[in-house]
Design goal:
By secondary structure, this protein is mainly α. It has helices spanning 13-24, 32-56, 63-74, 83-90, 94-106, 128-149, 153-175, and strands spanning 80-81, 110-115, 118-126. 14% of the residues are buried.
C-alpha cells in the first residue's frame, strides 16, 4: 500500500485548527503540537469506533455488547465471569452493565446463573451462540483494523504502538499519580 511520509503528509483538519490557534494566540504556539496530537488521536478513535460499529452490526451487536462478549471469551473456559469482574474490566457502572447483560441475555448470547461459590452472586456465561457471534465479530473487526493499519508497515506499526504505550502510561500516571511516601 502507499505510505505517506509524515514530514510530507498533506495538511489535515487538525493542522488547520492548530494554525488558527497559533494565529489567534501566538503565546500558545509552542503548545499546539500537543493539541494536534490529541486531536488526531481523538479523531482516529471516533472514526475507527464508527467502523467497528459497522463491522459488528451484521452480528446484531454494537461495540458495548461486543466488549462484554469479548471479555467473556478472553477469560477462557468456561467463558464465565461475575458481573463485578465484568464491570471492573470494562470500567462501567453497574447500571450500564445491567443494560448490556439484559440485551445479551434476551438475544441468547449469555446466560445468568447463580454462582456456586457465592449464594448472593451470579455468573455470566457465554452461550454457544454467543461464542460463535463474538468469534465472527472479532474477526470482522480485526479485518477492518488491519486494512487501516496496513499502510504503516510492520516497523512503523511497532513504533506507533511503542509511542502510544508511552503516551497511555503518561496519561494514566498523570490521572492517577503514584502516592509518594510521607517524609518524617
Amino acid at each position: 500500500m502507499d505510505r505517506v511520509d509524515p514530514r510530507r503528509a498533506p495538511h489535515d483538519p487538525v493542522d488547520a485548527i492548530a494554525d488558527q490557534w497559533r494565529h489567534e494566540r501566538p503565546d500558545l504556539a509552542d503548545r499546539t503540537e500537543a493539541m494536534a496530537a490529541f486531536g488526531r488521536v481523538h479523531r482516529v478513535s471516533r472514526a475507527v469506533g464508527e467502523l467497528m460499529e459497522q463491522a459488528y452490526a451484521p452480528f446484531g451487536i454494537g461495540r458495548g455488547e461486543f466488549d462484554v462478549l469479548a471479555t467473556l471469551r478472553r477469560a477462557g473456559e468456561p467463558f464465565s465471569l461475575s458481573p463485578r469482574e465484568l464491570t471492573a474490566t470494562l470500567m462501567l457502572t453497574t447500571g450500564g452493565m445491567t443494560g448490556r447483560l439484559d440485551k445479551l441475555e434476551r438475544a441468547g448470547l449469555v446466560t445468568r446463573s447463580p454462582d456456586p461459590n457465592d449464594r448472593r452472586g451470579l455468573r455470566i456465561t457465554l452461550t454457544d451462540r454467543g461464542r460463535e457471534t463474538v468469534d465472527q465479530a472479532v474477526a470482522a473487526g480485526l479485518a477492518v483494523q488491519q486494512r487501516i493499519i496496513d499502510r504503516l508497515g510492520e516497523q512503523r506499526l511497532a513504533e506507533l504502538n511503542g509511542l502510544l504505550r508511552e503516551l497511555l502510561h503518561s496519561v494514566e500516571t498523570t490521572a492517577h499519580p503514584t502516592p509518594t511516601p510521607a517524609r518524617r
